[in-house]
Design a protein that fits this description.
Layout lengths: L1 E6 L10 H7 L8 H9 L5 E6 L7 H6 L2 E5 L5 H13 L3 E5 L1 H5 L1 H7 L3 E3 L3 H14 L4 E3 L25 E4 L2 E2 L10 H5 L4 E2 L2 H13 L5 E4 L8 H17 L5 E5 L8 H10 L1 E9 L3 H6 L10 H10 L3 E6 L14
Parallel strand pairs: 1-2, 1-3, 3-4, 4-5, 5-6, 7-10, 10-11, 11-12, 12-13
Antiparallel strand pairs: 8-9
Helix pairs in contact: 9-10, 10-11
Length: 335
């Protein structure tokens, strides 16, 4: 089987940072971790071509070469996602899709003409898809309520990437988040019980990137890196000597909830392991709004004190805010 894996164009938005990338001489912030994870799950005798359309466009020769097209997408990519499905169908190629957008809105991909919808988490549904191909099924929708054991997830195919294109390369330690923020679909996609990889898995991924020559940022793209604090500490305790032995080749960034400020040991371990920046959803200074969206973890301590504590301990905060919540009082932006 000859498979063409495509990541659609990211239009200029919060997700693209195009002007900043242009200044830096780069083409994309980070690669699609989902697709290169899927690539590692496909049969070893398949021929694979991976193309991030934010880095370079595929050629007509690529379309002619392939038997099967696999496309993943987030909602921001919906226009290019649809056009790629339609082009594949028009060229007589079998088209399979997956990822967060088709998982959330499968009818969009079906209406565009996709033959196979590989939804939910690929560790469960990729085997279903491969079995359907073996049977000769011409189409199918593959779903699973089961949350896979990520300790069985293979090392991502970082070798497929043009590493010169990216500001940061992505790795994942855990999936899921224990909180229930009303506006977030993470718990719908990945559940409220964080599942974590083993430290040796993570070190193998770091080693693979190191051996490929990567020396910039690594974005640990967990839904909430501290969702399972115990396992996060175990991983960090294994990562610190690896980073020290390799002379800290990467700067690490991640996403975590503001209750990180409640655990000095965890912040100190993150800093010692090479983390320099953490994205945090602060959302709003208004407690009534935070309670209304069920973000109670941001109400347990002073937001300002929590942020200052984290930065004093050595992590920079990249903060997320949302304007216009119910119960928002005038002047929220200024506050």
């Amino acid at each position: 089987m000859k498979a063409l894996l495509l990541w659609p164009v990211m239009p200029n938005s919060f997700w693209s940072y195009q002007e900043t990338l242009d200044l830096a001489g780069l083409r994309s912030t980070n690669p699609p971790l989902g697709l290169i994870t899927v690539a590692a799950m496909l049969p070893p005798d398949w021929d694979i071509r991976f193309i991030d359309r934010n880095d370079r466009l595929e050629t007509e020769a690529d379309w002619e070469w392939c038997d099967l097209v696999l496309i993943s997408a987030m909602i921001i990519q919906k226009k290019d996602f649809r056009e790629l499905i339609q082009k594949g169908v028009a060229l007589g190629k079998k088209v399979a899709v997956g990822g967060p957008y088709p998982t959330s809105v499968p009818e969009y991909a079906l209406e565009a003409g996709a033959h196979y919808l590989i939804l939910d988490e690929g560790e469960c549904t990729i085997p279903m898809f491969l079995e359907a191909l073996e049977r000769g099924d011409e189409q199918g929708v593959f779903r699973s309520p089961e949350k896979p054991d990520v300790t069985q997830t293979p090392i991502d195919r970082y070798d497929l990437l043009d590493l010169d294109a990216y500001l940061a390369v992505t790795v994942q330690f855990s999936r899921g988040c224990p909180f229930q923020c009303e506006f977030c679909d993470i718990i719908n996609l990945y559940g409220r019980k964080p599942r974590t990889k083993m430290p040796e898995q993570m070190l193998a991924e770091f080693e693979a990137l190191y051996n490929l020559g990567w020396r910039r940022y690594i974005f640990v793209v967990d839904d909430n890196f501290i969702g399972n604090k115990r396992n996060a500490k175990i991983f960090l305790q294994a990562l610190i000597p690896w980073m020290e032995a390799h002379d800290y080749p990467f700067s690490l960034i991640t996403e975590a909830s503001l209750n990180l400020a409640e655990d000095d040991e965890l912040v100190e371990l993150m800093v010692k392991a090479g983390f320099v920046l953490v994205f945090m959803g602060i959302e709003t200074p208004d407690t009534d709004s935070l309670m209304g969206i069920n973000k109670v973890q941001n109400t347990r301590q002073s937001l300002v004190d929590s942020c200052h504590k984290i930065t004093r301990l050595g992590l920079q905060i990249m903060s997320g805010f949302i304007m216009g919540f119910d119960n928002e009082r005038p002047g929220a932006g200024q506050r």
